[in-house]
């Protein structure tokens, strides 16, 4: 167990890369799989994408416990609202719920999240809900420790009106770039694509994550165990 | 004094042998016998109403139609002070919803919350039901809507409806109209005509208050502009004279 400066055990941290990108007709969400407590990777294939409604998902980074709690609350509030409205809530409404929780409890929480989804009114949408409690709608968003390495990559790679395939490829490429440079991100890639038809969940195992440097072997092929 | 509900009508927590809660019925009577009539027509999304005044009253000083939020308005009928409390509650619901969810309260949700609220007062011995009914006009992402919330807590969506003393006469007129096919402005004129016609028999002075929430108003609930109202009242008076001459 890793210890921090006070000698207390460090809480699990989703040192993470999370990405969400809109395309023509929907939105693609992606995340790496690494959860670390200090230098120990406690989970190398975690799922940082949480479903809030049929077509709205939450990407989590920051404190694993805080973001799980917020995600659970957000899902509960969304269900209650759907019952009262008689229809699924809008993406903007759910994003507002998440950012409100961040804001009202900002002293205690450390959750940097992205809410992304599809609704009939506005199509695919991405909302950044960073630490502190602000809420900003964007065409694409990244967060987590690995995001620092890929802001420019997305600035360069994002085009308005991309196709679904282009957007999915962009998300996977960006994540793999971050995973190559950020020690706290890595492992596997999970993506969820949301459009009119529903949600498509995909999984990229560690040895199929794109590599960018010919001198690094793909993970999983270097060692044979047992 | 013995009446219909003798013995079973003293509190809202008592049923009569034939299954009625008389206090609720009496509250409804407070609305039905109110000397003013309120009309709502959905296609045009307007709540109209009629006031009986005394000579000493300042014109248009007592408002019957209230804004709940930019996109919603309510007209109360019956005991007006009771109505005021319901209006305040509606405004609170709208504000809280917007504060929590970040979007204007949908009409359907506001209607259901108001209905639950009014129903609450039919359940307890220590409170009496509101002697007021509300015509709720809203415009949200699902379009325009008109709801009537009654003292019992019953609420329905309507194409057109009326409450108050002359409600049956007004409803008869509304049924003749093709509410789905007229524009907002036409509906204002029609409503004014109906109110003037229905009030004609009384002979006492009165004034009209009309509001609308429609595309023409930018989906904002507001009093109809002065010139539209003037045009409507002029048309209403002209129609009355015409029908007088035909007699």
TrEMBL record, chain A:
Subunit structure: Component of the proteasome complex.
Gene3D superfamilies referenced in this protein's UniProt entry, alphabetically: Glutamine Phosphoribosylpyrophosphate, subunit 1, domain 1
UniProt-listed GO biological process terms: proteolysis involved in protein catabolic process
Free-text function comment from the UniProt entry: The proteasome is a multicatalytic proteinase complex which is characterized by its ability to cleave peptides with Arg, Phe, Tyr, Leu, and Glu adjacent to the leaving group at neutral or slightly basic pH. The proteasome has an ATP-dependent proteolytic activity.
Active-site residue numbers: 16 (nucleophile)
InterPro entries in the cross-refs: Ntn_hydrolases_N, Pept_T1A_subB, Proteasome_bsu_CS, Proteasome_sua/b, Proteasome_suB-type
Catalysed reaction, written as an equation: Cleavage of peptide bonds with very broad specificity
SUPFAM superfamilies to which the protein is assigned, alphabetical: N-terminal nucleophile aminohydrolases (Ntn hydrolases)
Keyword Protease: yes
Lineage of the organism: Eukaryota, Viridiplantae, Chlorophyta, core chlorophytes, Chlorophyceae
Record GO cellular component, one term: proteasome core complex, beta-subunit complex
Xref: PANTHER family: ATP-DEPENDENT PROTEASE SUBUNIT HSLV, METALLOPROTEASE TLDD
Compartments, record wording: Cytoplasm; Nucleus
Keyword Cytoplasm attributed: yes
Protein name: Proteasome subunit beta
GO molecular function: threonine-type endopeptidase activity
Sequence similarity: Belongs to the peptidase T1B family.
Superkingdom field: Eukaryota
Keywords: Cytoplasm, Hydrolase, Nucleus, Protease, Proteasome, Threonine protease
Organism: Monoraphidium neglectum
TrEMBL record, chain B:
Subcellular location: Cytoplasm; Nucleus
InterPro entries per UniProt: Ntn_hydrolases_N (IPR029055), Proteasome_alpha (IPR050115), Proteasome_alpha-type (IPR023332), Proteasome_asu_N (IPR000426), Proteasome_sua/b (IPR001353)
Nucleus is among the record's keywords: yes
The keyword Hydrolase is assigned to this record: yes
Main location per the UniProt record: cytoplasm
Any GO MF annotation of the entry: hydrolase activity
Chain ranges of the Proteasome alpha-type subunits domain: 8-30
Highest taxon of the lineage: Eukaryota
Gene3D superfamilies, A to Z: Glutamine Phosphoribosylpyrophosphate, subunit 1, domain 1 (3.60.20.10)
Cellular component aspect of the GO annotation: cytoplasm; nucleus; proteasome core complex, alpha-subunit complex
SMART domains named among the record's database cross-references: Proteasome_A_N
The entry's keywords: Cytoplasm, Hydrolase, Nucleus, Proteasome
One GO term of the biological process aspect: ubiquitin-dependent protein catabolic process
Transmembrane segments: none
Family note: Belongs to the peptidase T1A family.
Protein task: The proteasome is a multicatalytic proteinase complex which is characterized by its ability to cleave peptides with Arg, Phe, Tyr, Leu, and Glu adjacent to the leaving group at neutral or slightly basic pH. The proteasome has an ATP-dependent proteolytic activity.
Protein name: Proteasome subunit alpha type-3
């Amino acid at each position: 167990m890793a210890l921090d400066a006070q000698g207390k055990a460090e809480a699990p941290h989703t040192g993470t890369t999370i990405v969400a990108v809109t395309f023509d007709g929907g939105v693609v969400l992606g995340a790496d799989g690494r959860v670390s407590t200090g230098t120990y990777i406690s989970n190398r294939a975690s799922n940082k994408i949480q479903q809030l409604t049929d077509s709205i998902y939450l990407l989590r980074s920051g404190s694993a416990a805080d973001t799980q709690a917020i995600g659970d609350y957000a899902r509960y509030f969304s269900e209650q609202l759907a019952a009262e409205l008689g229809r699924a809530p809008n993406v903007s409404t759910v994003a507002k719920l998440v950012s409100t929780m961040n804001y009202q409890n900002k002293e205690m929480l450390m959750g940097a999240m992205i809410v992304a989804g599809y609704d009939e009114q506005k199509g695919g949408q991405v909302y950044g809900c960073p630490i502190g409690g602000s809420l900003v709608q964007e065409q694409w968003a990244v967060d987590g420790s690995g995001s620092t390495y890929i802001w420019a990559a997305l600035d360069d790679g994002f085009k308005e009106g991309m196709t679904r395939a282009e957007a999915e490829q962009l998300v996977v490429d960006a994540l793999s770039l971050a995973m190559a440079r950020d020690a706290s991100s890595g492992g596997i890639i999970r993506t969820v694509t949301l459009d009119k038809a529903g949600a498509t969940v995909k999984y990229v195992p560690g040895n199929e994550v794109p590599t960018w440097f010919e001198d690094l072997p793909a993970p999983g092929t270097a060692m044979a165990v047992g | 004094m013995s009446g219909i509900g003798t013995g079973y009508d003293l509190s809202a927590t008592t049923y009569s042998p034939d299954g009625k809660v008389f206090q609720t019925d009496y509250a409804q009577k407070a609305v039905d016998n109110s000397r003013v009539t309120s009309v709502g027509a959905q296609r045009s999304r307007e709540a109209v109403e009629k006031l009986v005044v005394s000579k000493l009253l300042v014109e248009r000083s007592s408002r019957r139609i209230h804004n709940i939020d930019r996109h919603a308005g309510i007209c109360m009928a019956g005991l007006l002070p009771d109505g005021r409390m319901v209006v305040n509650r509606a405004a609170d619901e709208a504000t809280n919803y917007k504060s929590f969810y970040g979007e204007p309260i949908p009409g359907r949700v506001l209607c259901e919350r108001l209905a639950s609220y009014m129903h609450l007062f039919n359940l307890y011995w220590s409170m009496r039901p509101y002697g007021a009914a509300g015509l709720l006009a809203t415009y949200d992402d699902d379009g325009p809507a008109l709801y009537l919330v009654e003292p019992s807590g019953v609420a329905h969506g309507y194409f057109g409806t009326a409450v108050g003393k002359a409600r049956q006469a007004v409803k008869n007129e509304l049924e003749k109209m093709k509410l789905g096919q007229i524009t907002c402005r036409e509906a204002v004129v029609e409503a004014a005509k109906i109110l003037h016609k229905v009030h004609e028999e009384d002979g006492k002075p009165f004034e009209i208050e009309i509001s609308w929430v429609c595309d023409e108003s930018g989906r904002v609930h507001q009093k109809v502009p002065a010139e539209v109202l003037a045009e409507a009242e002029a048309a209403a008076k002209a129609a009355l004279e015409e029908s007088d001459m035909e007699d």
